[in-house]
């Protein structure tokens, strides 16, 4: 079985990605108890001819390049694109560049960046959502026969989650201090349907996953298997296709952002 990749989606929403800018001196991590918002922020339409895409940060600066509101919502709410419904066409077609500064010193964690963007959606896009459920096809992450092979996070359950990845003709993703729900979020960006954690595993884990996308073929020099096989062999986890009631975010009101 193969998983269809979503063309054009970047890892930005799940990965710590740095932009082309040179970062300044680190100011350390933002306090875990902090609830940051954008102190200063500019939102501009992206150059339609540019292929640069990403979400990142440098100290207090938080930026997004070449992102639609839908891709930003996927990041901020931790959902697959098919879990965002009733949106006007521009939400998934118009791309924006966003540059802002957090109102609290330090580098934000992934949950803090998500919180900043959720507040921005309300303030600048006038976004109003209704939470609900709809019947959708999805992949469930479950434990394979023989048991899981993932290891508990070496830094414990208080560590901040991180995901990094790179391509070599195959994909290699490193997951550090991830809940299984964090892992599901990261893998959503490679799937044509939502991925839902149904492992029942608690706590945070460290692991690496290597797989060949279904747009490529394993070779003798790179005999890396496809995603379904890789997850079973390397992690002791399975992806099971299912259909059922899945959480969705229905857009009730939204507008293109106000001018800076």
Count of alpha/pi helices: 4
Oligomer state equals single chain
In which range does the helix fraction lie? Answer: 10-25%
Sketch the major β-sheet.
4 strands, antiparallel
What is the β-strand count?
A: 12
Domain module tally? 2
Strand order of the largest sheet: 1-5-3-2
User: What fraction of residues sit in β-strands?
Assistant: 25-35%
Whole-number average pLDDT? 86
Principal-axis shape equals globular
Backbone CA Rg: 18 Å
Protein structure class: alpha+beta
Distance between the termini: 48 Å
Enumerate the spans where pLDDT stays under 50 for 5 or more consecutive residues.
1-26
Order of helices and strands: EEEHEEHEEEEHEEHE
Protein name: Soil-associated protein, TIGR03435 family
Organism: Granulicella tundricola (strain ATCC BAA-1859 / DSM 23138 / MP5ACTX9)
Keywords: Signal
Pfam families: DUF3738
Describe the structure.
The protein is an alpha+beta fold and 260 residues long. It has two domains: 11-18 and 28-131, no CATH class; 134-245, no CATH class. The chain has four helices and twelve strands; from the N terminus they run βββαββαββββαββαβ. It has helices at residues 69-77, 110-125, 180-187, 227-235, and strands spanning 38-45, 54-58, 61-68, 84-85, 95-102, 128-143, 151-152, 162-167, 171-178, 195-197, 205-211, 237-253. Strand 2 (54-58) and strand 3 (61-68) form a beta hairpin.
Main attributes?
single chain; four-stranded antiparallel sheet; alpha+beta; 4 helices; 260 residues; four-stranded mixed sheet
């Amino acid at each position: 079985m193969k998983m269809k990749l979503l063309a054009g989606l970047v890892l930005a929403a799940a990965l710590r990605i740095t932009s082309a800018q040179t970062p300044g001196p680190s100011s350390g991590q933002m306090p875990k108890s902090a609830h940051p918002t954008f102190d200063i922020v500019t939102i501009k339409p992206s150059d339609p001819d540019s292929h640069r895409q990403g979400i990142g940060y440098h100290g207090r600066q938080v930026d997004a390049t070449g992102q639609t509101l839908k891709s930003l919502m996927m990041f901020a709410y931790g959902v697959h694109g098919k879990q965002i419904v009733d949106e006007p066409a521009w939400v998934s077609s118009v791309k924006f560049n966003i540059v802002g500064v957090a109102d609290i010193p330090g580098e934000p964690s992934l949950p803090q960046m998500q919180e900043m963007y959720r507040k921005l959606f309300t303030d600048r896009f006038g976004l109003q959502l209704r939470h609900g459920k709809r019947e959708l096809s999805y992949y469930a992450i479950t434990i394979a026969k023989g048991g899981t092979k993932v290891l508990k996070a070496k830094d414990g359950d208080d560590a901040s989650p991180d995901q990094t990845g790179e391509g070599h003709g195959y994909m290699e993703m490193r997951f550090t201090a991830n809940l299984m729900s964090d892992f599901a979020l990261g893998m959503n960006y490679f799937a044509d349907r939502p991925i839902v954690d149904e492992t029942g595993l608690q706590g945070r884990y460290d692991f690496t996953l290597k797989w060949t996308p279904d747009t490529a073929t394993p070779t003798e020099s790179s005999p890396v298997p496809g995603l379904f096989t890789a997850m079973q062999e390397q992690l002791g986890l399975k992806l099971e296709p299912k259909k059922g009631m899945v959480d969705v975010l229905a857009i009730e009101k939204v507008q293109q952002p106000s001018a800076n």
